[in-house]
Amino acid sequence: MKIYNTLTRKKEEFVPLEPGKVKMYVCGPTVYNLIHIGNARPMIVFDTFRRYLEYRGYEVNYVSNFTDVDDKIIKKAQEEGVDASEVSRRYIAECKKDMEGMHVKPATVHPLATQEIDGMITMIATLVDKGYAYAAADGTVYFRTGKFAEYGKLSHKNLEDLQAGHRDIQVAGELKEDPFDFVLWKPKKEGEPSWPSPWGEGRPGWHIECSVMSKKYLGETIDIHAGGEDLIFPHHENEIAQSEAASGKEFARYWMHNGFLNIDNQKMSKSLGNFFTVRDIAEKYDLQVLRFFMLSAHYRSPLNFSAELMEAAKSGLERILTAAENVMRLAGAAEGQAAANGQDKAQAANGHDVVQAAANGQGMTAEEAALYARSEEFQKKFEAAMEDDCNTADAVSAVFELVKFINTNVSAQNTAAYLHSLYERLRLLCDVLGIQIEKEAEILDADIEALIAQRQEARKNKDFARADQIRDELAQKGILLKDTREGVTWKRA
Fold this sequence. Notes:
single chain, alpha/beta, four-stranded antiparallel beta sheet
């Protein structure tokens, strides 16, 4: 398997630190609002890469943080007149809902910055002791970029070039030894959350958070660090500097970065009126469509979002789902026919048993066995695409080839073993992409009414968290509630 390493600017053979195991850290969102579709891209592409690693048999320790202390969170809290922790808790919960809607698997650990402050203070103290950091008179602690000889190795620029090209982030001041030194610890301001430290009450800088969380949950050296292209400089550059200065060891072996997302060929921004949250998209599309759209391009390529492209993604996804539904319908009919004829149980069984029987050469005709063997070429194409720097665009093409093959080579005359086996091959590849082809059983009217009654009881008891949970559960099953004077009405989406 080859990965394009931002550090070396070339594709490299992936060799994990420990055979059969992968340590992977992906920078998560700052939780002060609903996540937008720009946030969604790294979530989806690196979740897909994780799924492929697991498909390959690796045990993946996948860590993705929530930044729950930040200027934007504090500003939002002040606007609402609430505690900053209330804002972050609310939007972590909302983010997890959106991630579930996009079929992003929960990380092995989702650490919170505010729960790792002690580790941050320890690392900063180590950097101070080693001479890589210093405390200014106001209690701010800065990292000495000039002392770290390899500063700039990820963005491939030396300090002089960086200073010339990024003057917008150079906050010059008498308290800094060098205008390019960055903050590790900042002193407390009135009305802001703070923690005690050797340098006074305050809170950590952004960059130190990820270094500490990565070290705690994955170790001093990890296999893969990933995130959006916008994080290469300064965030990831600073992570490398402080982590390697503190430990004396390589921080991450491979660095993966996804490309930017544009809206109708323009940068997404609220001022242009082209800013979309994942929740906005969910009002128009199943979030599987958004996921499928994100995987239609190579993760390192810029991706343009538009209504036309989303419609194309919707049509493409429907082709896959229709093929899967058709195969399962035919398989069900074949099972029924086989049972009616008193044929071998292997042919009349379903799911895993039939696939296992087919793998052992049972249940298929000779012609079907030959066709099934031919279908393996599409799985191999899929794997070759994913092995080549997680090329999901080519992997999706391989899935479409498999769909075309299935549509051409199935009929009511086929055995259940053959049909189930083709379906399972399609399901396996779609599962790597995070695309769900199994249809969930439709919830019965009586069950909906029972849940609504439970929700009403929870509201009566002022258990609003449970009431909201029930509403969300129903919404995920496509049931929309409306509270009226006459009571609660519902409809299927």
